[in-house]
Design goal:
alpha+beta; 29% strand; globular; 8 helices; Rossmann fold; 2 domains; 330 residues
């Protein structure tokens, strides 16, 4: 990405519908910026010093991921050998500091979304673990945890000519007419075997020095830069379920099951206050009441991707173009 095609966080960008400022040189595609008329939240990302992390000195020797909170409500996240973060109690500020010489690309490509999610929960938003593609001016979401194949499926749609709205994290803007899905970073994260199908060998940026997974910036023409109404959700199967599946199936799920899946696919599970859990349930219930959800089942194997994509396209187009009264009679 050239300097002409990038902006720094300090320039004040809207990503996931959030106005992000600060002094940390994270770069996003210009096409990811300034996509909403009003930001849902504002977050400042700053370089942290010893004072920012003084309450959490006991964790500095840990070789495991750490999530903790101090008496003031500041949240602490630490990925050993990568980065540590202190998130203000109101979610307005994130102090960050690299560990063991970790590069800022690790923050941009791997950790930014995860820490931002904590700040957004503190501001009353509920990020979802989902990838979203745009079809016929509608947002089609794929719900699933890590390793479920959201990004690979999204990349398959992009290769077929559809625009990607967001990969991995989804923020929704609740409007009077329904929910609108907001654009993400303009990147997609893929394992090596999936990346070989869609990108040149050796391209992309490693998420961390310890994994082969890479982050790929999408061409502007393949990115959706404005919010889009969320119309359909597809719940992806777990890897173990794919191993026991022999055909591609799409089944409707009840509102109750949809609520359960939406709660299960929250982007951060570390904050479990009563207030947060109540808000999370209300958010999931509201989405499930207005967006149709379906269970997507398919076998393991990248060879199935074209057939899975075709099945989703046919199903989604039928749902998007057929009146509800007709669908109910089928």
């Amino acid at each position: 990405m050239s300097a002409a095609d990038a902006v720094v966080v300090a320039d004040s960008q809207s990503i996931y519908g959030v106005r992000v400022t600060g002094d940390v040189p994270i770069r996003f595609s210009r096409s990811a910026g300034n996509t909403t008329t009003r930001p849902l939240a504002e977050v400042s990302v700053i370089d942290g010093d010893d004072r920012a992390f003084a309450s959490f000195a006991a964790h500095r020797a840990s070789d495991e991921f750490v999530f903790d909170e101090d008496a003031n409500g500041t949240a602490y996240l630490r990925w050993p050998h990568l980065y540590e973060f202190a998130v203000a109690p109101d979610g307005s500020r994130i102090a960050c500091r690299p560990l063991d010489g970790s590069d800022v690309s690790v923050l941009q490509n791997f950790l930014f979304g995860q820490v931002l999610a904590v700040a957004l929960v503190r501001q009353g938003l509920e990020p979802l673990h989902a990838a979203v593609v745009v079809m016929d001016d509608a947002a089609i979401g794929f719900l699933g945890d890590c390793t479920y194949g959201k990004s690979t499926l999204l990349a398959s749609f992009v290769e077929a000519g559809y625009r990607a709205l967001t990969d991995d994290m989804l923020i929704l803007d609740r409007r009077q007419e329904g929910f609108r899905a907001l654009p993400g970073s303009g990147r997609v994260k893929l394992q090596v075997d999936s990346a070989r199908l869609f990108f040149a060998r050796g391209s992309g940026e490693p998420l961390t020095p310890f994994t082969q997974k890479r982050s790929f910036e999408l061409d502007r023409s393949k990115q959706q830069r404005a919010s889009v109404p969320l119309r359909l959700l597809y719940v992806l199967p777990a890897p173990a379920e794919r191993d026991n599946t022999r055909s591609i199936e799409i089944r409707p799920v009840s509102r109750t099951v949809a609520v359960r899946e939406l709660v299960a696919n929250t982007f951060t599970t570390h904050i479990v206050s009563r207030e947060r859990l109540a808000r999370q349930f209300e958010h999931a219930t509201s989405i499930a009441s207005s967006v149709d959800a379906f269970e997507l089942r398919y076998p393991t194997g990248l060879d199935y991707l074209p057939a899975i994509r075709r099945a989703v396209v046919e199903h989604a187009q039928r749902r998007l173009t057929t009146p509800d009264s007709v669908l109910e009679s089928l």
